[in-house]
Design goal:
This protein is mainly beta and 799 residues long. Strands 1, 2, 5, 6, 7, 8, 10, 11 and 12 form a nine-stranded mixed β-sheet that branches. Strands 3, 4, 13, 21 and 26 form a five-stranded mixed β-sheet that branches. It has a five-stranded antiparallel β-sheet with strand order 20-14-23-24-27. This is DUF4906 domain-containing protein.
């Protein structure tokens, strides 16, 4: 499998990156700048000549197998970037705000120099440590300091230095563009900079941004057949311009940025924007080098099934209008972007890319890059009991009676009906997708897919039939084949008000509980794609509350359970975090996806547009019977802020206890799937250092370990002290760290919590119990004081 480094060798790019030749011509400028963390090594004056590398035309790479194709249906051709006098073909007239950092081989900062504005091709002299092996990082921040400073940054700290996306993507003056160069192995000899093999060097700075140019033609034949181009869009663009994006080892090779980076839409051209583009669009984007897919032998198979899911792509949305004026067919023409070979999935810095696309026919049957949107209203006969959460295996469909609820009064949802008649304004007339995730963080496929119309018609994703009938009403939903994720669908009355909502947990995890014929060991064996657990404490022993019950092996909404492995990717660790809940509320809210508290816009509507969670101050919410419960039901994705108790702004009464704590019985507002519920605090009784060793950061079980470096703890639940042998998903349990929300804001992503259904009077206030396993390692495993205005992770126990 080809690596990114191999791809960059073409056209002398490696010479630009790693080999240097000193130029001694031009004016000489003396720079005297104090060192940061000065080394005890001998200092020496170095004279360098710094210029710009020529931009690379991606089409000039010699192709072994072209990434373009000649197709009568969907013709995508790599073409030379136009040689016109454009901003993408120019260099800045100066190296603006040039900074240099010298690092040792371990990435420790030795010297920082601020060289200011430097004329390209002039000699610059300054002092560096005289070392046989070191690293240098050059950054020209651009006119106006578009990129952040590298002053005081370690080599790893450069990962967090970004340039302004808003500024770069509006650049018409190339002087604003940041340029950079990282020399990973150089030595300083007699005032000269040399590569490790002793060759003198040139310093050629590279443009930080990628230039994309797309030209398209829509055939007259399609127009005559009543097809029209609805939208042209660039998806999966990294959100930030990082001067040194984090690398990650994957099956596609070393890629950057890594899988947990935030990706966003690059552009979506519709209506007048599409018309004014007139078949051509250019844009600056960050580098997105997603490796090589050796399995792809033809450009027709550069499809979602074979590429790295984080690969950027262009998509053309085409509608067909029937004789009755209705749009009866929608097609998605998708082409993944990369280099000039079928296997190359890389958009790299300092490179110009140009594609010419011809949309010729609507033959989606014979071209796998073209997908047909199924506009048929969902209708399922797979009826399941109604709870607030449905676990759905990708590629399946379900239906349920929305007025029923397994934890309601006589299995009726008492918020909607008394079992005989529907309550006022509770008749369901429509169902829509409130939000959904993608199946690989902020990249990949929507877990439910695209609706026919975001505003008016979601029937191809979620559909209501016989909504005016208590017994015959059915909501049908389907989950296409994806890697899994989460979604929230809601039922509306004729006034457009939400009357109830349901969480869809789309996962291949199928837990099995203990029954009269299935014991604990057998339940673990029969659980698909994971395990179920009984912890080593008294709650699961004979006479305990959960003696014949099991816990799920993961948090609610998580896409993975169990320890992912010492060398697992950040995405695999992130998949185990799950979502967070406000105690007493039935609907999930996203927490930390990547181990940080920076999450925003990681959920999407039925048209694939990123949406935000709404925060509403408690004082602005209308109250019913002195509380916000009715409002919360109608606003399932809104966070209540400005209060320590979202229910009634009072922690001195137990008015909200009934929401999750009904003397051990599952409630109408419990967020767990049918057959499961939020556990009692006793599940962590007696768990301590004697019977639950934890995973140390270095990958070993020890009695007093620490969190794993990627966030979380692995506990021995075998009941036998020491290290379980062999270590399996059945005798260990993984608890990931995750941020929680305080006043709506994510915080403390390095902390680990697990909430329970119980409430208690704590220092005069009613608070719920939780366990904190990140700092005190369960030596004091149960804590009081959880506020309902703050969200936490939960996991489910067998009902």
């Amino acid at each position: 499998m080809a690596s990114i480094g191999h791809k960059l060798e073409t056209k002398g790019v490696i010479m630009t990156l790693l080999s240097l030749v000193l130029i001694s011509t031009g004016c000489e400028e003396q720079i005297d700048s104090p060192a940061v963390n000065p080394s005890e090594e001998k200092m020496i004056e170095v004279t360098l000549n710094i210029g710009f590398a020529e931009e690379i035309d991606a089409a000039s790479f010699f192709p072994t197998t072209k990434s373009g194709n000649e197709s009568n249906t969907f013709d995508v051709q790599f073409a030379p970037y136009p040689k016109t006098k454009t901003v993408a073909n120019n260099h800045p007239d100066q190296l603006y705000n040039l900074e240099v950092c010298q690092y040792n081989t371990e990435g420790v900062l030795l010297q920082y120099k601020n060289l200011g504005i430097v004329n390209p091709g002039t000699n610059v002299s300054f002092e560096l440590n005289n070392l046989e092996d070191c690293q240098l990082f050059f950054l020209a921040r651009g006119s106006g300091n578009v990129a952040g400073s590298i002053n005081g940054k370690s080599l790893d700290g450069l990962n967090d230095v970004i340039a302004s996306s808003e500024t770069i993507e509006k650049i018409t003056d190339i002087n604003q563009m940041p340029y950079f160069l990282h020399l990973e192995k150089v030595k300083i000899v007699d005032g000269k900079l040399q590569s490790i093999d002793g060759k003198d060097a040139r310093i050629l700075m590279k443009r930080l941004a990628v230039r994309l140019s797309i030209s398209w033609e829509f055939s007259k034949t399609l127009v005559e057949q009543n097809y029209s181009l609805r939208e042209v869009r660039l998806f999966q663009k990294p959100k930030q311009y990082s001067i040194r994006p984090k690398r990650e080892e994957t099956k596609w090779g070393i890629v950057y940025p890594g899988g947990l980076t935030d990706f966003i839409d690059g552009f979506r051209l519709t209506g007048s924007g599409l018309s004014s583009a007139n078949g051509h669009y250019e844009v600056w984007v960050p580098a997105n080098a997603q490796g090589s897919a050796s399995i792809i032998t033809s450009s027709n198979y550069r499809t979602k099934e074979y590429v790295n899911p984080a690969t950027s792509y262009i998509e053309f949305v085409v509608d067909h209008t029937a004789v009755n004026g209705q749009n009866d067919q929608r097609l998605y023409y998708r082409t993944y972007l990369g280099g000039n070979t079928t296997t190359d999935l890389n958009l790299v810095e300092n490179t110009n890319y140009h594609w010419i696309v011809k949309i010729n026919t609507a033959d989606f049957i014979h071209d796998p890059r073209i997908r047909l949107l199924d506009q048929t209203p969902v209708k399922s006969t797979n009826i399941v009991p109604a709870a607030n959460c449905f676990m759905m295996v990708p590629g399946t469909n379900i239906c349920f009676n929305p007025y029923k609820h397994t934890s309601g009064t006589n299995e009726w949802n008492y918020q909607l009906t008394d079992g005989n008649t529907l309550n006022v304004d509770k008749t369901i007339t429509d169902v829509k997708v409130i939000w959904q995730t993608k199946d690989a963080g902020t990249v990949g496929e929507l877990v439910l897919g695209y609706a026919i119309d975001q505003t008016t018609n979601h029937k191809n994703l979620a559909n209501i039939e016989s909504g005016n009938s208590l017994n015959d009403a059915r909501i049908s939903v389907k989950a296409p084949v994806t890697r899994g994720g989460n979604a929230l669908v809601a039922a509306y009355n004729s006034n457009g008000t939400i009357v109830w909502s349901w969480h869809l947990w789309i996962t291949d995890y199928v837990p099995r509980g203990i029954t009269s014929s299935i014991n604990y060991v057998e339940a673990q064996k029969r659980t698909r794609n994971g395990s179920v657990h009984q912890y080593a404490g008294s709650a699961f022993k004979t006479g305990g509350m959960y003696a014949n019950k099991v816990m799920m092996d993961r948090n609610l909404c998580a896409l993975g359970g169990g320890f992912p492995g010492k060398n697992a990717s950040n995405l695999e660790f992130g998949n185990r975090i799950g979502y967070i809940y406000y105690w007493g509320r039935k609907d999930p809210f996203f927490g930390s996806i990547d181990g940080t508290a920076n999450e925003k816009d990681v959920i999407y509507n039925a048209d694939g547009e990123a949406i935000s969670l709404e925060c509403v101050n408690y004082s602005e919410i209308p109250k019913t019977d002195g509380n916000t419960l009715a409002w919360v039901i109608e606003h399932p994705k809104d966070i209540i802020i400005g209060t320590l108790s979202w229910y009634n702004d009072s922690e001195t009464t137990d008015a909200s206890v009934f929401l999750w704590d009904n003397q051990g019985k599952k409630t109408l507002y419990d967020p767990c799937p049918d057959g499961w519920m939020i556990p009692d605090k006793s599940v962590v009784n007696d768990i301590n250092t004697a019977n639950a060793y934890w995973f140390n950061a270095n990958g070993n079980f020890v009695q007093n370990g620490s969190s794993h470096t990627k966030g979380g703890r692995l506990y021995n639940i075998s009941g036998t002290p020491g290290i379980p042998t062999p270590q399996t998903i059945h005798n260990t349990v993984w608890f990931p760290v995750t941020a929680w929300r305080g006043n709506g804001v994510l915080t403390q992503p390095d902390q680990g919590y697990l909430g329970f259904r119980n409430m208690t009077l704590y220092s005069g206030y009613y608070r719920f119990f939780y366990s904190r396993y990140s700092n005190n390692e369960w030596t004091n495993n149960l804590q009081e004081g959880g506020r309902t205005g703050e969200s936490n992770p939960f996991r489910c126990v067998q009902e």
